[in-house]
Design a protein that fits this description.
The protein is an alpha+beta fold. It has a single domain, classed as Alpha-Beta Plaits (2-Layer Sandwich), CATH 3.30.70.100. It contains three helices and four strands; from the N terminus they run βαββααβ. The protein has helices spanning 15-32, 57-65, 67-77, and strands at 2-8, 36-43, 48-54, 86-91.
Length: 93
């Protein structure tokens, strides 16, 4: 399993809107992105993380180049961000 972790700095006032974007694109992610296995929203006081599960690192990287990510997700989240997202890919042992 491979995990794509995206950490977002989003002010508390904008978190409801960000959660709406997560909900809007969760099903299209799971149904149309090659190798997509899971998607979870993790909320902490200091930030919000979206954890995506994939079957391979290649598919995780491909998602980052997809129109769903670049146009829809990033386009929707961009006005809500207080800083650039931190994007990391992890491989399970």
């Amino acid at each position: 399993m491979v995990y794509l972790q995206i950490t977002l700095k989003i002010a508390a006032a904008n978190r409801t809107a960000a959660a709406g974007i997560y909900q809007k694109y969760k099903a299209p992610f799971l149904n149309t992105i090659a190798g997509a296995k899971s998607k979870e929203l993790l909320v902490r006081d200091e930030d919000v993380q979206v954890l995506h599960g994939f079957d391979s690192q290649e598919n995780a990287n491909a998602y980052l180049q997809s129109e769903l990510f670049t146009a829809d997700v990033v386009g929707g989240l961009a006005p809500l961000l207080d800083a650039a997202p931190d994007v990391r890919i992890y491989q399970t042992a």
